[in-house]
Amino acid sequence: MRIDSAWPWYLTGNSYHVAGDGTSFAAPQVSGAAAQFLDFYSISLDWPEVVKAAFIVSATDVGGTNVAQYGRGMLNVFHAIYDQANISDITRWTGSLANTGSTANHTFTVPAGFDEVRVALTWADPVSAAGNDNVINDLDVKVYDSTGVLVSSSSTADDTVEYVKVTNGTPGTWRIETSAFSLSSAQTYGLAALVILNKADLAVSGFTSPVGENSNSRDFYLYSALTNNGFAAPGSYVQLQLPNTSLYEVQGARIYTADGRSHFYDSAELHHDEGSSYWDVTTGETISGFPRVVRWLLRYAGTDCPTAKINLQAYYRDAGATVLGDSASVPFSCQPATVYLPLIIK
Fold first, then answer.
1. What pLDDT band is residue 336 in, cutting at 50, 70 and 90?
2. Is the distance from CB of 186 to CB of 97 less than 8 angstroms?
């Protein structure tokens, strides 16, 4: 993924923006996310381990098992900070282990019908000798369900993060056991558990509307709305399919945010393969209660008044794959008296 960012014009020649990737672009995003988190939970100002643990359990899986290459996932700041009824619940703890072999326990509630439980344990390891990046203090984590059954554990020896994901177990009061496999000194840690009750459930709907009141205009709007009734749907985008490419034309799309702001992209800025009837607009993460609205500006080049359908599809990213969330067909019709007849679907 490449990020479009503000950039000094004198470094690019004549542009105030540049697209890039890597840690230079990831670092400011993570820093901004940490600022958001700490603005809401100032009690964690002295506990970066807790911030890190919360970000890890709430992050979107981007696929790949090589953490050095793929990191811990795509940031999901909303669910790192907020709980949503019937969707997700996050719990955070701080703790300390005094010596090798010592343990500590933390409990949290897992409701019936849960979809997934994630647990992350993080700590700041003592500084080792120059040129040595081996872990000095080694901590482990175990997770037990309400019946005392061990449902998952993590005991890596080369990292300061232990992470588990659980999709089964008896609901009720669960217990997390942190333990010191090897300590050179007392070690503080941050711990977070996220219960996902309902995974992403993306839906798309739409309707058409004439542009202004000019009956001679062949331009019309298609409003498409992405909604989500589950956990965050990252990397969301809506795909529009024209009935055909000879009579229908995409002139651009305006994306609206929940606070009423918007930005218009002309057709040259939209993702589209030459000659294809498909057009894509990325809307970003779709969160329950915050619909993403796209107003497409379309043109009908025909002289008759056909009845046609414009197809919409909503996608998001999960576990490194593109997932189809929903699809819908928007009826479009023009009549001599009204030119375009808006029809609301779904």
1. very low
2. yes
Phi, psi of 133 (to 5 degrees): -110, 20
What is the fold of 47-196?
Answer: Jelly Rolls (2.60.120)
Q: Which residues contact 23 (CB under 8 A, 6 or more apart)?
A: none
Pick the more confident residue, 196 or 275.
196
In the chain, which residues fall in CATH 2.60.40.1290?
Answer: 202-333
pLDDT tens string 73-92: 888 999 999 999 999 999 99
Topology of the domain covering 202-333 = Immunoglobulin-like (2.60.40)
pTM of the model: 0.84
Taking only the tens place, the pLDDT of each residue in 113-163 is 999 999 999 999 887 766 667 789 999 999 999 999 999 999 998 889 999
Average pLDDT over residues 213-217: 55
Name the residue with tokens 């400011």: 28
Question: Which of 322, 316, 331, 340 lies closest to 205, judged by CA?
Answer: 331
Contact (Cβ atoms closer than 8 angstroms) between residue 219 and residue 63: no
Residue 1 has pLDDT above 60, yes or no: no
Alpha-carbon span 314 to 226, nearest angstrom: 7
Residues of the chain with CATH 2.60.120.380: 47-196
